[in-house]
Sequence to fold (227 residues):
Amino acid sequence: EAGVAQSPRYKIIEKRQSVAFWCNPISGHATLYWYQQILGQGPKLLIQFQNNGVVDDSQLPKDRFSAERLKGVDSTLKIQPAKLEDSAVYLCASSSRASSYNEQFFGPGTRLTVL
Amino acid sequence: GEDVEQSLFLSVREGDSSVINCTYTDSSSTYLYWYKQEPGAGLQLLTYIFSNMDMKQDQRLTVLLNKKDKHLSLRIADTQTGDSAIYFCAEPNTGTASKLTFGTGTRLQVTL
Fold:
């Protein structure tokens, strides 16, 4: 079974530029999550999708961050414009309702550096 | 808001036992989780415990749950160099079972 795929793995941009991250979840997983992991901290949920609908985006800075999952499969997360404090690893995860304990499967992440 | 706390760093010798501790906040959590993150990789579920259990053992791993004190621990027996990683405990957010709050993570260093 293929895992959660993310690209790119690394991205370096200057502040005020735009950047987009892509995630392809495990096939058949209806729930998709985007997390932000700042160095030395645990992951913080940015947005959660159930199929192509948003379940929770309460911690997404909506003035600069946006995310979509148009066909209920892969997803993109965009930052426009980026700030220095956006430097972090962006993790995508997916889960299936078949798991009673809601195991989340994580991709390798995209490390963003904002200069 | 929820705040899951962990100590930042633990160093043990190969072959010794490791104990990683976590304090969580929501006494109504149904499951509590331990995730492992190796360098440059995403998180991987290591083990979990249902809230009506006090202990769960899975090969070298033992999870202890003290609901009264909201304390969760992970014991790794016969720690190996391959166990070097960051360990996160996580609890579901109140009212949203699928949304997790992660602790700050404990970096386990295994020395020879």
